[in-house]
Design brief:
Elements: H1 3-13, H2 16-19, H3 32-43, E1 50-53, H4 60-72, E2 80-84, H5 91-103, E3 112-117, H6 124-136, E4 141-147, H7 155-158, E5 162-165, H8 171-185, E6 188-189, H9 191-201, H10 205-218, E7 221-222, H11 224-230, H12 236-247, H13 251-264, H14 269-279, H15 287-305, H16 310-325
Parallel strand pairs: 1-4, 1-5, 2-3, 3-4, 6-7
Helix pairs in contact: 3-4, 5-6, 8-9, 8-10, 9-10, 9-11, 10-11, 12-13, 12-16, 13-16, 14-15, 15-16
Binding site for ATP: 54-61
Subunit structure: Heteromultimer composed of small subunits (RfcS) and large subunits (RfcL).
Keywords: ATP-binding, DNA replication, Nucleotide-binding
Length: 326
Amino acid sequence: MSEAAESEGSRGREVWIEKYRPQTLEDVVGHENITERLEHYIAKDDLPHLLFAGPAGVGKTTSAVAIAKSIYGEEWRENFLELNASDQRGIDVVRDRIKNFARSSFGGYDYRVIFLDEADALTNDAQSALRRTMEQFSNNTRFILSCNYSSRIIDPIQSRCAVFRFSPLGDDAIAQQVRIIADAEGIEVTDDGVDALVYAAGGDMRKAINGLQAAAVLDETVDEDAVFAITSTARPEDIKEMVQMALDGEFTASRARLESLLVDSGIAGGDIIDQLHRSVWEFDLTERQAVRLMERVGEADYRITAGANEQVQLEALLASLALNEE
């Protein structure tokens, strides 16, 4: 088998988000202020209960596993229990699995670590049970909770944890990691390809890496066209043109551009809303136009989330912009 064919086969067999997952806190990019504090906890052997809050793909789970590896080394799997609360979110899980792990005997370490992912999916009763469990086993167990919205975690749990808020990753951090992986895999990535991956990711490292792997399967060179095609992401200029047409009162043309994005490109209405929200201040709009657009985006997003038809709501958004202009 040729080297190129072997490389191609390797790309298909491995999941890059796992292959290039950081193994230590030092390797976690984009949150140096957080990882530095966590390293101090470990160095002083003074780890409190932790609450990681933030959007998906920014390093919460990776940081939790890296903490366990730093403390326990090769024995981290025996001393680290990972549960996904969105799948196992009842009170019985807290009472049974967590308590059994916390009670079980172990040697050589002062405490074990329980990592509860998506903890904001736990019911209130389960969170209350978890709070009591945290009190009962505080002498030999440390809890790391991960959630997207810390407001959904009851106050008694938040007050028992050191809270770390993970923000979406910066463009530079994502671009740097994309280039590192591309070099390691022998893939050529153009500058506009990197920019497209950063834009499509929207602060989510997993999206960027998955997009790179998917685009690399199509061609040896990853460019802007490949990224937008494989990630089903609208080009920023297409979104901008659609909005500008509506603001200029050209509703029919704006609606046609929207239909092309939804039908021809297969982009979900919710993703268009997200791109509008992320890009509105990058458009060449007056402040009044930008404020009006944000108001309509918020209304459409709420209605789509409540179950309304995506195309109808997006067309209504464009229509309201066109009517206001007239």
